[in-house]
Amino acid sequence: MARSTVAVTGGNGKIGSAIVDYLSEYGYETVNISCGNRQEHRADSYITADLLDAGDTYGALAKADADAVIHMGTIPDPYSHPDHTTYESNVLSAVHILEASEALGIESVCLASSINAIGSEHQPRPAQIDYLPVDERHPRRPGDSYGIAKHAMEVTADGFGRRGSLTIASLRYPWVATASEIHDAFIDADRSLAGLRTAADATTRDVLFSYLHISDAAAAARCAIEATFDGHEPFWITATDTTAAVPTDELIETFYPDATVEAERSGHESLISCQKAADLLGWEPEYSWRDW
To answer: Which of 154, 160, 194, 215 is the most exposed place for a label (fewest CB within 10 A)?
Structure first.
């Protein structure tokens, strides 16, 4: 069945609103499901719902009459809320989305996961990187409430995926940035080895010097709801290059001396492999900060 109507939770947010705009450009009917201020212009229709309420979630998706759901309506970090609230937002809302989608016969669900699912920038200990490039096989060892929640969300999606009625993609996003944010963080900043040691955590060692342009993030979500694989699959979704001005082999030597290098990286090539996303979703990023 062709998927023509897409419900986007959190369609008022940074990534959610970009996804709504992107889907509209591709001819999709869009439904923004949010609990914040009504922003009617963001989509073809708007539904106010509390995604922590199972009935509200079911009712909103039933009203949307969607063929697919892109779930972006969660707390995006571990700092602004108590830990249990962050966990609840990311895990319980996903359970409600998946359960309602399954019951309503919705074909495809895209979930917003994160690089933090493996244990990354928010935890007190450094990220443990076993091998490079990191792919979907890499162990997950999160220690903060946000990373733990993203890990738990993926495990939950595994369970729903085994039931066989849904195509579920969990997209592991790094820092997703607009053009102006990329300019400020990379073009106007010192990205040498010395500069990297004092740069923001969202762009340095514990996130494997990864980033993503917001247009590529939106494109990945569209590819995810158009995919036809069975069950649940996690995907790395990052730019093809690092956030560093120095070559990738220097980053590995300096910051990951104990990691096994399974495939040599040339130039400024990313430390994360997105080959699975290319193979199963047909997605490849278009934007690099070096093009500015």
So the answer is: 194
